[in-house]
Amino acid sequence: MSDSIIIAVDAMGGDGSPKKIVDGIIYNHQSNKDVFYKIFGNETKISDLINNKINKDFYEITHTDNVIKSTDSPLEGAKRGKDTSMWLSIQSVKEKKADIVISAGNTGALLVVAKLNLKMIENIDKPALSALWPNKKGMSVVLDLGANIECSSKNLLDFSIMGASLYTSLYPNDKPKVALLNIGSEEVKGNDIIKETFQILNARNSDNFNFSGYIEGNHLMDGNVNVIVSDGFTGNVALKTAEGTANFITNELKQAMTGTIMGKISSILNISNLKKFKKRLDPRLYNGAIFIGLDSPVVKSHGGTDYIGFSNSLDVCYRIVKGNLIRKIKQNIQ
């Protein structure tokens, strides 16, 4: 399919693979016929799952028995060789045989293998791990979520530019507002690196985003900013805290609605609102973290998601390529 977007898929990473991955591809294909899937993994297993579900014009399978395990350290994963499903899928992007790569496998290994194969975009020192978060008004891009524990003001400036480029690739009609995650909203708050980054961004005129200053953790979901920037340590803590809080609220509400007779009656009466609430907090809708800063886009699907979550991360891949993310970053980083 010459005019299709080509997605390289590591079919062997994550829980329940390759079935979950193939089911996600089948589900995604139902609503999007503009994607060609280059699938890497055990050909026998994949063929048994995909045969007669998708026309062969829309996919090809590259066989390998070698797989990076979830228990591998990043270095161990990289040492498993160039014939693993993860390495081969990333290599296909390096060789321009695919537009983007996705894996639900080992996160640390994915970052290491991607950095071994792909060059950094010129003028960017470090790649960042970014993701979409829900807020009251829509979605926010948050980065870095763990790729870099320590960051300089130059790194945080780069993350701001890359995050804004990602947002405009996904939502081309909006000019994003960028904020720095901090312990307060006043200019005097935070460490020296945060304050230095604030001064740089505040003095910088940018065509691709507006700088909105600092944002505190309790305002992440307000929806007043579109791109939230932090170092990887702070960002990862914020991510895990948000995920844990969402799970706690969902579980507590479920217990309250099913634990007593009155609760069950109330849940029946409010079934429509409860469905909306559950959908709003459904992590599958926000599946798909993006390594940005490399000269080809790399998407990480959550290893524990199901086929619907993986399909949603394939949608993220499609929108990133359609939105010309890499070209936007290169233009804006100058």
Biggest sheet strand order reads 3-2-1-4-11-10-5-6-9-7-8
Radius of gyration: 21 Å
Instruction: Report the average pLDDT across residues.
Output: 88
Shape: globular
Write down the domain tally.
2
User: What is the share of helical residues?
Assistant: 40-55%
Q: How much of the sequence is in beta strands?
A: 15-25%
Please state the structural category.
alpha/beta
CATH superfamily of the largest domain: Isopropylmalate Dehydrogenase
CATH fold name of the largest domain: Isopropylmalate Dehydrogenase
What is the H/E string? Answer: EHEHEHHEHEEHEHEEHHHEEHH
Work out the number of β strands.
11
Describe this structure in words.
By secondary structure, the protein is an alpha/beta fold. Helices cover 44% and strands 17% of the residues. It contains 12 helices and 11 strands. It has an 11-stranded mixed β-sheet, with helices on both faces. β1, α1 and β2 form a beta-alpha-beta unit. The longest helix has 27 residues. The two termini are 34 Å apart.
